[in-house]
Amino acid sequence: MADFYQNGIVTTLHNLSRRPLEDLESELRQFSKQRPMSLILPSLFSELEGEALPNIVRHLQGADYLAEIVIGLDRADEQQYRFAQNFFAELPQRHRILWNDGPRLQAIDKELQALNLAPKELGKGRNVWYCMGYTLASNRSESVALHDCDIVTYDRELLARLIYPVANPRFNYEFCKGFYARVADGGINGRVCRLLVTPLLRALKKIFGDVEYLQFMDSFRYALAGEFSFRKDVLNDIRIPSDWGLEIGVLSEMHRNYANNRLCQVDIADAYDHKHQDLSFNDDAGGLSKMSIDIAKALFRKLATNGKTFNTETFRSLKATYFRIALDFIETYHNDALMNGLTLDVHQEEKAVEMFAQNIMKAGQAFLDNPMERPFIPSWNRVISAVPDVLEQLSDAVEQDTKEFGAL
Length: 408
Prior knowledge:
By secondary structure, the chain is of the alpha/beta class. 51% of the residues lie in helices and 12% in strands. The protein has helices at residues 21-34, 45-48, 52-60, 78-87, 103-114, 124-138, 156-167, 191-208, 212-217, 234-237, 246-257, 287-305, 312-339, 346-369, 380-386, 390-405; strands spanning 11-13, 37-44, 66-74, 95-99, 143-146, 175-180, 183-184, 187-188, 228-231, 263-269. The strands form two sheets. The chain has an eight-stranded mixed beta sheet with strand order 1-10-6-9-5-2-3-4, sandwiched between helices. Strands 7-8 form a two-stranded antiparallel ribbon. The chain is globular.
């Protein structure tokens, strides 16, 4: 059971009473009359064939307070898209699938590419961005939740707790970040958050001092959680990265656009496990190695917009400071694991820290080598300004795909 401690400068909503799911959903049904709700599911086709997503769909059938479910489908050909239509047909809620690889959505993407307004690379960020655009086009919800499709421990209480803070008309939150303990199968997971993000934030504090942005980021208990919710108006002006820096980028945008008292984080699950990425020690282009580089660059870019100056010496000092802090954290996590009867491989933890330390330098060099890099996807406000009917195009394309290839 969680405590009631408020850490940092962002409100934390705890799980103090183990409130029954039936009570939460009863309230959400009432809230939906004033603040209709929707859910975004960014998915790879391969996840339809895994163990997690079929279970998620079964649970979502009971979330009758949702007005719409928007599914972003990546890496699917026509046959696989048809399969997806039948796969999601079990959902009783109105739902639409964005066939991101289909000719209609590809044509829209090509139009935006010509105007330098489309995402620069494939990935979750691009998928989420188009789903956000469709949610604006659909205009069926005021509160929107988003969660991953590879959660093997999924229960729909996760969704209820995640969307509650932005759905309750008595609350004024514009954005809510989910958090949870990354404990599963007798071990502590969440290596990138534990061993990179938190010690890197603490190291940046030592280098740059009491920067409010760093205090903000360090307030989140699980900054890399892929689960968050927001009011619909957030979608218009948010600029998100298309790489692995998505979660850090979203938090940075919330810091830029909203006062801290309009943001919160909520405990959404006692147990959480999902598909694990390989550390990829020898491959900077994949796995947790690429993720760590993208995350570090996202933090450096944000600090640069706050007037902080970086050079080679800065990154050398940062690497050394990070390394010492991260090693101390390993001892802390090891002791925590032992006290709770869990396992933690100290050797593998230190190997991960060594790789992350090297990748901080690589991220720093990439940041210095390409100062004109524009990693953020333009906001939908900007896209609509350039292509006034883009949302109508997006909605029409999805409807035509649904009509032509819909479930049998």
